[in-house]
Each structure stands twice: as C-alpha cells, then as structure tokens.
Design a protein that fits this description.
77 residues, 43% helix, three-stranded mixed beta sheet, alpha+beta, GMP Synthetase, Chain A, domain 3
Length: 77
C-alpha cells in the first residue's frame, strides 16, 4: 500500500522528490503517513479534501484483498 500512496502523490505534486511515505503497523491498523512539500499540500488535499478522500478510497479498495486490518492514510506537512 505504501507504494501505491507514493505513486499517486508523486503524480500530483510539483516536487516529487520531497514526497516521503512511511508505513507503521499496529495491532488493529496499518498507518500510512504521507509527507509532501508545504507548497504541494493543497494539491494533495484538493478542494474540500476530495483528492485526499480519493487517495484513501483507492488504498482501502486495494487493501481489501490482501489486508484484514484497517488502513489509515494520514497526510502531514
């Protein structure tokens, strides 16, 4: 899932070299943290959070087949 988030984020931003995706696993969830350059934050979030919601939906849909735990995508600057 980490690779999917990284691919999507790099396609959206102006500074793809500053995209950093980390993944940590807890007992009931997998947390994927996306960091982008401050000037790219609006492009990743989108109007009213639509792009961020779409990224989360794609990741959850991709994880349905392989992952039994909850998937959380956090976007931080």
């Amino acid at each position: 899932m980490k690779d999917l988030v990284e691919y999507l984020a790099k396609a959206l931003v102006e500074h793809p070299d500053q995209v950093v995706v980390t993944q940590r696993e807890e007992e009931d969830a997998v947390i994927i943290e996306l960091r982008v350059a401050p000037e790219d934050m609006g492009k990743v979030i989108g109007k009213q959070g639509r792009i961020a919601k779409s990224i989360r939906t794609l990741v959850k849909a991709a994880a349905l087949q392989s992952e039994k735990r909850k998937i959380v995508v956090d976007i931080v600057s």
